[in-house]
Amino acid sequence: MAAQFLASLGCRTKVENTAKVHSRFKHPLDPLTSEEIVAVTSEIRKHIATNTEIKAVKFFTCSLLPAPKRAVLAYLGIPLEPGAKAEAPVPLTRRAEVDLIDAVNGGAYNVVLAQEGDKWQVETFNALDKVLHPQISPEELQECEDIVRADPQVQALAKEVGVLPEQVFCDGWSIGYDERFPHSQRIQQAFVYARLGEHENLYAHPMDFVPVVDSNLEKVIHIEEGGYKQRTDLKPLHVVQPEGVSFKIDRHVLEWQNWKMHIAFSQREGIALSTVTYNDHGEVRPLFYRLSLAEMVVPYGAPEFPQPRKFAFDSGEYGMGTMANELSLGCDCLGQIHYMPGSYVTHNGSAFVIKNVICIHEEDSGVLWKHSDYRVGGRGHTVRRRRLVVSMVCTLANYEYIWNYFFYQDGSVEFEVRVAAEVMAHYHQHLFCLRVDPIIDGVKNTVIESDVSVLPDAPTGSTANYAGNAFISRDTVLETETGRLYDFATERRWRIVNSARKHYSSGKPAGYSIGVKGAAAPMMVRDDSWAAKRSSFLPNTLWVCRDVEGKDTGSKRIWPSGKYVPMTREEPEDSIGKWVDGKKSVVDEDLLVYINFGVTHIPRPEDWPVMPVEHLNVTFKPNSFFKANPSMDVPGTKDALSVPAFTKDQGGSARSSCCKDSST
């Protein structure tokens, strides 16, 4: 069944199942290659055969277990303190972490392996608590649909409304919370739809029953019942770069316009960016050790059956990487594109390869800066803004999510989520958690909260505030681990700073400001709701805590909702609400920052039958980090291919331009 599923995906995938020896890594955070995945799973099979009574297994995750941060920074020559030398590099051991399930009895295991020379060796092989479940795989989702479609009870219910077995389709969802089923059972609930035509939107025909499937037993264990024409007036619009792209790629390391970063594919997070640095006039300054989407929650707000059952943790329960699209040249990204592949493990231990999963390209983004002398004879100067885009597209049931990391020439970084869907007209939310591991000029950072308010104790007419117009920005250092809410009344903002490095002019510590205005969204459920019990990290807009690493591995604080999310009924012990006790100092410490943002979707008639894209953005802008505007050296340019729209001069260039004299 799994092989049929993989084969059905056609050109989207390639399956690697031959173990090969992979050359030594060039970067310690390089993700496991498809060859390494096969080598790792092969070694696990050998270990199981000689050391356990397990007869057959299914693999669910297989990923790099990062080395400690300090060791990685030393390896890359990145200093821990401003002006200091990097620590001496130490030998790094490449490790892999695997989650698997005993295909006979359903027991789950976590395995850690280390690479010794050209071979992998099992270091730990631990059984998970019976209430913990690895994330749900794409193969399980397909198997769920096959099981449901073949079930006699399902066929009978479908027949009652004139639906044939081959017209039955379903989306498997983690059941999340249901006291009626043992916590140890690995089960999915299936939301069933009828597709009455070959290419019809199946979500337009939801069916009013929900089968519950035991993934290990591979059977249904319970059933709960309860005129278009494309426009023709669009002319072609092309993105061209006649001299090629301005970025450089060396495997997973990218360089562009003073930026340098490592880009990896993650089975759970999708895109993972790490060791992000900026070359500030010859000084390579570290900014972020890692940026990634840590969790995503979609609670539905309709009380009618079966909507209360829907509160998916899409990242933790399914994985962004496993749901990623094979991107198409000229459709998902325009211009000159560089694609990166991604691999994840299948049940049989082979590597599932998505060839074009991450898209990298440049695009025009309007005006970077501009000024015109309004006086007669005055000149104007315009500099166009260009940005680097690192993107991925995921499909989760009826929704598409486009993930964009934007890097700008003024030193800014932006994380954007674009949400689009086929019809599903119930009130619901899309809530995201961005994990930020900052290294602003080093690993010792602090978070400062700023609130804007009118000048206190200074009424209109007073000496201090004669016209009544004065307002101030008040800074508060977050001294201990905490969670903080966005305050619209004060336009609250936060910045991550390195207090050891002060700006020569402002006197403030070098830092980056976090912008969430327009994206902050409270979770619209009751505190004792099923969804809230599982996602206690969401009530705050921002969390600040210390990073904690393992003895021989990287951070132990990654997942705000816990490492093992499927079927959790309350906040796990390894989730952010359990880490933060308000006692540990976060001043000049190795920090983690979690940013929650989202959108509440109240459907409109214009969302039918496919919802236009919704944009959500989190920004990181330099604040007393650079001496001045770092984009002043970006040249003004005149596009020779731009022409007036409604003249006979369609083939020539513009006669004049506000950036004509930009070089003088």
Question: How does this structure look, described?
Answer:
By secondary structure, the chain is mainly beta. Among the domains are: 34-127, Nuclear Transport Factor 2, Chain: A (Roll); 138-225, Nuclear Transport Factor 2, Chain: A. 10% of the residues lie in helices and 38% in strands. It contains eight helices and 29 strands. The chain has helices at 2-8, 34-51, 69-76, 138-150, 152-160, 314-318, 530-534, 576-579, and strands at 13-16, 57-65, 95-102, 108-116, 119-127, 168-174, 187-194, 210-214, 219-224, 248-250, 253-256, 259-266, 270-280, 283-299, 311-313, 338-345, 351-372, 380-396, 399-408, 413-422, 428-438, 446-454, 471-477, 482-484, 493-502, 509-515, 542-546, 591-601, 610-623. Strands 1, 16, 17, 18, 19, 20, 22, 23, 25, 26 and 29 form an eleven-stranded antiparallel sheet that branches. Strands 10, 11, 12, 13, 14, 15, 21, 24, 27 and 28 form a ten-stranded antiparallel sheet that branches. β18 and β19 form a beta hairpin. The chain is globular. The protein starts with a helix and ends in a 41-residue tail after the last strand. Mean pLDDT is 90; it is low at 1-23, 651-657 and 660-664. Residues 645-664 are annotated as: Disordered. Belongs to the copper/topaquinone oxidase family. Residues 653-664 have a biased composition (Polar residues). The active site is at 314 (proton acceptor), 399 (schiff-base intermediate with substrate). Residues 237-419 form the Copper amine oxidase catalytic domain.
Descriptors:
single chain; 664 residues; Nuclear Transport Factor 2, Chain: A; 11-stranded antiparallel β-sheet; 10-stranded antiparallel β-sheet; disordered C terminus; oxidoreductase; Cu_Am_ox_TPQ-bd; EC 1.4.3.-; copper
